[in-house]
Amino acid sequence: VFVYSAQELLNQKIEVLLPERYHRKHADHRSHFFADPKLRPMGAGLKLYGVRKDGSEFPVEISLSPLETEDGLLVSGAIRDISERKRADEELRLKEERFRLMVSEIKDYAIVMLDLEGKVISWNAGAERIKGYSSEEILGQHFSRFYPPDDLKEERAAAELKFAAKEGRVEDEGWRVRKDGSFFWANVVVTALRDEGGRLRGFVKVTRDVSERKRIEQELELRNAQLLSSNSELEAFCYSVSHDLRAPLRGIDGFSQALLEDYSGRLDDTGKQYLERVRLGAQRMASLIDDLLELSRITRAEIQRQHVDLSEMARSVIHEISRQDPSREVEFVIAPGLHAEVDPRLMRTVLENLLGNAWKFTSRCSHARIEFGRTQATGLGAFFVRDNGAGFDLMAAGYSVRSSACMLQRNFPAQGWDSRRYSGSFIGTEAACGRRARLTKGQHSFSRCGRTWLAKAPRLQLGFPILLRNTCELDGDVNTTINLARRPRHGKQSHFAGRRQSR
Amino acid sequence: MASNPILLVEDNPDDEALTLRAFRKNNVTNEVVVARDGVEALDYLFGTGIYANRDVSVSPQVVILDLKLPKIDGLEVLRRLRAAPQTKLLPVVILTSSNEERDRLEGYGLGANSYVRKPVDFAEFLDAVRQLGLYWLLLNERPPVWRKN
């Protein structure tokens, strides 16, 4: 320990081994000790140092035992170098200090220590920020004062501690009160603290102010409720439209027809023609009402996805469509083996609509060609219906839009897709899973099931003006949702998406 | 053609006139009794109220029932007449503006024999009535008459 050899120290005074500043004092101590020798255990609370042969100092622990011998009183001293232990202690102290500082400086969380009864024994900056008390004000107070004032708050606080003691931990969420009496929505975790022997020493309580989250949740709830109620209002509206709006139309049509039949002798050709026009108007109105109703029905319908062979579905739709006019010669090109997870009923409506439009708008083509297939043109996978019929100019969109459309299959990551880049040339279709037919220019929207764009590339570039894209952003497990494209007013017919042609 | 009357339950006078016209046009000669709300319809069928003196053993060939009716609506009329033994098997055709799925579901669920939507186009309407007449007045064999034992 001291580096000296035994030879070197024999018959030297013990002070050799002490720092020089202690020499005189130590000599006094020594005489006192000999006058009244006591057993002194190791490290009896004194900071003692030894000196090595090279003069370096080090902390020591000394125990002295007086020995009565025949040669008189001797004292045996056991000296231990405690440099190592001192260093370890110091390190621990620093660590604790750092930890304490860290906890006390944390501002986002209130971290509070409670004693066994629930009285506050430590208070950090976060606690001061969130709850408003300074540590001087709150230390020693019971933590039940953070609960909203009601008769049971002591019991609730006690129950919380009891539970934490039993289970190790308890989490709670609820209103808490600040010093100024204001409320905040808190997430609280209380953890029981036990020593090595397993004895309960107290609790640490971590509190977060999650009022903002709570506010958003409540707002969302409110919005949902509003949405539900407006949906059911819409439903009631559609229901009454379905009944009440059609009734007068039947009168207009029926009595016009009665006039034509019963009074035709008194009407000239112009008069009869006028009545025919009245009838046509009523019938067109009726078909518009039907379109609206169908649209609302589609919007309301629950989506039930299943595996669908789209190629097969397209074939069957085409079969029906071409029965309308068997004399027409149209080349149909259907890509084989197209599959998707979709609602078959809605998907069929989509295809009826799109293929029906293609059929209609190729009626003046000498070599009509209608395709159904899959494309990567958008960078993502999409299905498309495409025809070589009359096109439209997007600049006049909303009036003369006519479309071929693509339905995107979201087996493909949509993250890389920058809709803004295309916003100038896109018509977004706001759609609940593409079910809404309202066209809004240059925007996209989120819906229950996905995001839909009705997209237009300049005609010259693609040859086909519109891609209707759809990605399913919200449902991770569902691959495909479907879209409806509306062919807006063109001539006297106006068809909403989802219109079933034959009923 | 069977000679029992037809009970037309219809509150809209336009629709009533058009339906009667359609019957005429299709040479339906049966008497048509018109009930203008649900209560009238039930009174006729059960011989109550304004029809207290009616001989209820003469039951209609077919009941043509609108759904939206004053006082008691069409579905409720249907429910009540299906619950009564003497009208339980009476042929009932729902003829309505609505093609709402829930109306159809409920109509059939309550035991309607047919569900026909009134078309706006009178020519189609005529055709619908012609087919109704053909089926319910000519082809259909009525259920045996219910008798109190």
Descriptive notes:
The complex is a heterodimer of chains A (503) and B (149). Chain A contains twelve helices and 21 strands. Chain A has helices at 6-9, 23-35, 83-105, 125-131, 135-138, 153-167, 211-262, 269-300, 310-323, 344-361, 419-422, 459-462, and strands spanning 48-51, 57-69, 72-81, 110-114, 120-123, 169-177, 183-194, 200-209, 306-309, 330-334, 339-342, 368-375, 382-387, 405-408, 426-429, 439-441, 445-446, 451-456, 466-471, 487-490, 493-495. In chain A, a hairpin with a 5-residue loop joins strand 4 (110-114) and strand 5. The radius of gyration of chain A is 44 Å and the shape is elongated. Chain B is globular and about 40 Å long. Chain B has 149 residues and is of the alpha/beta class. Helices cover 40% and strands 14% of the residues of chain B. The model of chain B has no long low-confidence stretch (mean pLDDT 85). Classes of the chains: A alpha+beta (503), B alpha/beta (149). The interface between A and B is medium-sized, with 24 and 21 residues.
Attribute tags:
heterodimer; A: 503 residues; alpha+beta; five-stranded antiparallel beta sheet; 25% strand; B: 149 residues; alpha/beta; five-stranded parallel beta sheet; 5 strands; globular
Order of helices and strands of chain B: EHEHEHEHEH
Identify the biggest protein-protein contact and residues per side: A-B, 24 and 21 residues
> Largest beta sheet of chain B: what is the strand line-up?
2-1-3-4-5
* Beta-strand share of residues of chain A: 25-35%
Number of helices, where a helix is a run of at least 4 consecutive DSSP H or I residues of chain A = 12
Counting DSSP E segments of at least 2 residues, the number of strands of chain A comes to 21
Secondary structure class of chain A reads alpha+beta
